């Protein structure tokens, strides 16, 4: 029992279950999943479907944060990737041609990686602090996206492009399949190979890692490029879901949601250690919260307050120091030897 | 293509220097033309401070003002504030220094304009607000406010709905996609619509959430509505984009937009009008960006010292599906 309680994903799971229970009480048929038009249909499917871009962005963000960095530019990359892909597709003579859509998607993803490499270059090559280095692209990127689309919302009529974010494959939303593949690959690369260890070591102490023979610079650049790629895929999903690119609003503030997802998932902002499953849980909590707000009908004026309250509770409940203070009398005192370890957790 | 690429590079470079040095002087909104001076050749000089270019609506608005100024023989000095109040204040100050005859602008936000408007007043330059209002207590600071009446737009939407269902006794379940919480169009379209609809107890607004005026949010919120409310008869979306997103959600749920669920939106953008002509939207209340002609007339009157009303409403109409098919080929935006 105490082992389950101490597991670092225990509290995020509790919060997710609590949110779902809230819906069980307030919303009829929240857990009903049916087949409609040959695919699965229901609120739970929606949470995964609309949460998919956030999970992707947060996955990239997790690795960046594990190197004790941060990437504020993901929202802009989301907008740029969607804008470029839609622009290319709208120039096609046959918008449904698979080859044309694939090339548009390819170009958008290549650009996303290039933008990620640019961030990595600024951070690792020049040594600018990550928050400043990525702020540049965060500010400039939206302008780029607007330039690509001429400040307009670009609409495309392409059923092949639509598949990425709004389509279904084997009754499942295609976006979920993409997320599953990306997650599986990331988990394999970081947990089965040594890459995860290298990332954590760079995050723990970049200089010590370098002296130990790890190419800290290479690891950093790669991680930012990967984060750019994830954001790019998310951007394609978001724009494909509504068959249009909106340079102004696509992925607006998604960087903050992604950072929040990472933090809820138990990855400390100080870097050095990360949890992919925690991040996925964190992203699902955020999306469930959003869907809950729509379903139970929280008035729009108080939506932000409601979100803030839930997030505050989530963060407090995850802090061992807070739990120790509040539930002090019911439990035996925390042994002093574990104190430094727990302090790291509080900063999460 | 080459032009676009070079423009991209240039924009990137500019943005970089801006972010790099963080100087307060960057991006003065392109108001730096120095020709200046009042009406030497008898031409009226107007300084116009635009919000930015955030939507197709705004682009059409800008283009119309530039074209009508040329037609009316008014010398237009134009600046783009890129959604930032400080840029707009800077642009207005530069117009005051250049001693233009009249200043017009669409305020980015409602508050914080008293100081700069006082400066204009002291320089005896009349000010016309377009499209958006300011919340200043002192209405003598500007001559007139030319713009849409969002409450009226909401009422028009509600009235159409009441007329559609006037022979029916059954309950009508309405869901509402609101604009960005706290924005004037969202507040006013909501209250105008609800005022008309609530007069009849058979209309029920069963759910109302913000879709932030975007397609993506409109779709997401509508998906949730469709699941938590099985019987939706009518959707009222505060702009076309949210309506277009919602249409996708409705189609995904196996229902027919325009038939199973009637859809009313506002704005009448090109994509919205297309959907209306295709029968996916039932009714659109126009929010007209083509206010240039009215603005130029007002400007001439104001400069000549004639009296103008404190509030001028832009000429706006509504569109049914048949009307959309007719006007669609000749729409400017």
From TrEMBL, chain A:
Identification of the protein by name: Simple sugar transport system permease protein
Major location category of this protein: membrane
InterPro entries: ABC_transp_permease
Transmembrane segments: 9-27, 47-65, 72-90, 96-118, 130-148, 168-189, 219-238, 250-269, 276-298, 304-322
Topology relative to the membrane: Multi-pass membrane protein
Molecular function terms, GO-annotated: transmembrane transporter activity
A Pfam family hit: BPD_transp_2
Superkingdom of origin: Bacteria
Keyword terms of this UniProt record: Cell membrane, Membrane, Sugar transport, Transmembrane, Transmembrane helix, Transport
GO annotations of cellular component type: plasma membrane
Family matches, as CDD domains: TM_PBP1_transp_AraH_like (cd06579)
Subcellular location: Cell membrane
Organism: Microbispora rosea
UniProtKB/TrEMBL annotation, chain B:
Predominant localisation class: other
Localisation: Cell envelope
SUPFAM superfamilies per record: Periplasmic binding protein-like I (SSF53822)
Superkingdom: Bacteria
Occurrences of domain Periplasmic binding protein (ranges): 52-307
Pfam family, one: Peripla_BP_4
Keywords: Signal
GO molecular function, one term: carbohydrate binding
Signal peptide start and end residues: 1-19
GO cellular component: cell envelope
PANTHER family: D-ALLOSE-BINDING PERIPLASMIC PROTEIN-RELATED, GALACTOFURANOSE-BINDING PROTEIN YTFQ
Protein family membership: Belongs to the bacterial solute-binding protein 2 family.
Name of the molecule in the record: Monosaccharide ABC transporter substrate-binding protein, CUT2 family
Lineage: Bacteria, Bacillati, Actinomycetota, Actinomycetes, Streptosporangiales
